[in-house]
């Protein structure tokens, strides 16, 4: 997912947009992990790991237009995560063009890529990024219409409607991975990426705080190549509910998601076949601030119905079940340390395993 030419062009646009105001933010994260891996997981995951990451976010905004950029850098990878040009229809509604976060669920919209903003170290497995073994299209390229309708009582109805193209599914000896679309993917030919449509609606009791309850639905066509020896297409239809509630000390957020996979497959020496599979996933995370700058948090994740789904079975890194407990300390302005212990079961593994991770994250300036 390396897009050097669009990155250069977009950086110039950020600098040259006349009459615009904006900001640059830098997120730095370092995570040290230790895992008690069963034998069948050692081929795809390290028992000890140190992973630094840098995320750069920039935006420029003028009366009628916006530009938004988010890039990620790791020792072994560099990627443009978001690259969006927006037209401000009015003060509360914007039409975006480019590569953006798929407007399903709540997690990606709220926390983006910089880890400092999220209470926990990790994301739920069902909303893991494509490069981390995620099974759902976190990024789309195309058009995104976003906005909010505000009531006289200062409540709000927030909406996001996306129409674009989604990822491809590529397989190899280590399992499948989603190849998310580049910012220019809608202009590519050859059927490399196919249409995707998503809608999310959320109700905010008070637009001045962060509590909300919502629903979403999405449909994505994904071409497949060498997925368990299968060539063809997966149509993923997903829908669900999500919510977030917090006060001065407590926070709850979670989602319940139903996913239907329609597989249109061509296997060697066999006639083309179609298959349908239905699965569901739920996660719930809670946090409690027991002292100033200290939080304890926990999350449960669970998945049902994946036993006979060849699409899910091909994603070795997919976290299908996890329970975790963590402690976060914001020891200085815009810097935090988290200690997190978890017990997880991945799709590839026959047994669950335990892990311990320490993470430092910061936001600059």
List keywords for this structure.
18 strands, about 375 residues, Porin, about 5% helix, 16-stranded antiparallel barrel
Could you characterize what this model shows?
With 365 residues, the protein is mainly β. It has one domain: Porin, CATH 2.40.160. 6% of the residues lie in helices and 61% in strands. The chain has 3 helices and 18 strands. A 16-stranded antiparallel beta barrel has the order 1-2-3-4-5-6-7-10-11-12-13-14-15-16-17-18. The protein is globular, with a radius of gyration of 20 Å. The two termini are 27 Å apart. The model has no long low-confidence stretch (mean pLDDT 89).
Concise synopsis of the structure shown:
With 365 residues, this protein is mainly β.
- Global morphology: globular
CATH topology: Porin
CATH architecture level-2 label: Beta Barrel
Q: How do the SSEs run, as a string of H and E?
A: HEEEEEHEEEEEEEEEEHEEE
The CATH class designation is: Mainly Beta
Unreliable spans: none
**Number of beta strands:** 18
């Amino acid at each position: 997912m390396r897009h050097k030419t669009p990155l250069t062009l977009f950086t110039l646009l950020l600098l040259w947009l006349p009459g615009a105001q904006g900001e640059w933010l830098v997120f730095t994260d370092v995570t040290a992990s230790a895992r008690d891996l069963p034998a069948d997981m050692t081929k795809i995951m390290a028992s000890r790991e140190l992973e630094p990451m840098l995320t750069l976010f920039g935006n420029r905004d003028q009366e009628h237009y916006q530009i938004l950029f988010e890039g990620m850098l790791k020792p072994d990878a560099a990627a443009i995560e978001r690259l969006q040009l927006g037209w401000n229809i009015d003060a509360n509604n914007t039409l975006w063009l480019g590569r953006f976060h798929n407007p399903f669920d709540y997690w990606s919209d709220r926390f983006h890529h910089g880890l400092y903003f999220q209470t926990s170290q990790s994301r739920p497995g069902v909303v893991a990024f494509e490069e981390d073994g995620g099974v759902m299209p976190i990024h789309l390229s195309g058009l995104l219409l976003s906005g909010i309708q505000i009531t006289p009582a200062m409540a709000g109805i927030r909406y996001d409607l996306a129409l674009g193209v989604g990822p491809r599914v590529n397989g190899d000896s280590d399992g499948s991975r989603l190849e998310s679309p580049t910012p220019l993917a809608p202009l590519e030919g050859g059927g490399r990426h196919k249409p995707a449509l998503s809608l999310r609606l959320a109700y905010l009791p008070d637009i001045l705080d962060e509590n909300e309850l919502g629903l979403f639905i999405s449909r994505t066509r994904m071409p497949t190549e060498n997925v368990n020896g299968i060539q063809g297409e997966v149509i993923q239809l997903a829908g669900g509910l999500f919510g977030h509630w917090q006060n001065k000390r407590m926070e709850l957020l979670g989602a319940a998601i139903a996913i239907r996979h329609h597989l249109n497959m061509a296997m060697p020496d066999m006639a083309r076949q179609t298959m349908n599979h239905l699965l569901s996933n739920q996660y719930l995370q809670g946090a409690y601030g027991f002292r100033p700058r200290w939080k304890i948090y926990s999350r449960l994740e669970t998945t049902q119905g994946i036993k006979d789904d060849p699409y899910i079975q091909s994603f070795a890194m997919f976290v299908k079940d996890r329970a975790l407990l963590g402690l976060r300390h914001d020891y200085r302005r815009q810097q935090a340390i988290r200690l997190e212990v978890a017990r997880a079961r991945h799709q590839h593994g026959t047994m669950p395993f335990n892990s311990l991770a320490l993470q430092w994250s910061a936001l600059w300036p």
